[in-house]
Design a protein that fits this description.
alpha+beta, DUF397, DUF397 domain-containing protein
């Protein structure tokens, strides 16, 4: 678990293209080892991130692109 904490702390985080430009709903993502993806709130970067397995992220991102989550 400490390895994951270190990896999250040292990760390069990118703001999602789906985040609002007004600074409100901002999501950041980071590529992690093993194909995993970290997700965090850019307004609270020290808060707890979510970590998705590669297969979970693929299903989620396809759902977002297909409009399955409203918007």
């Amino acid at each position: 678990m400490d390895h994951l904490k270190d990896e999250l702390r040292e990760a390069t985080w990118f703001r999602s293209a789906y985040s609002g430009s007004s600074g409100g709903n901002c999501v950041e993502v980071a590529r992690l080892s093993g194909g995993r993806v970290g997700v965090r709130d850019s307004k609270r970067p020290s808060g707890p991130p979510l970590v998705f397995a590669a297969s979970e992220w693929t299903v989620f991102s396809h759902g977002v692109k297909a409009g399955h989550f409203g918007g």
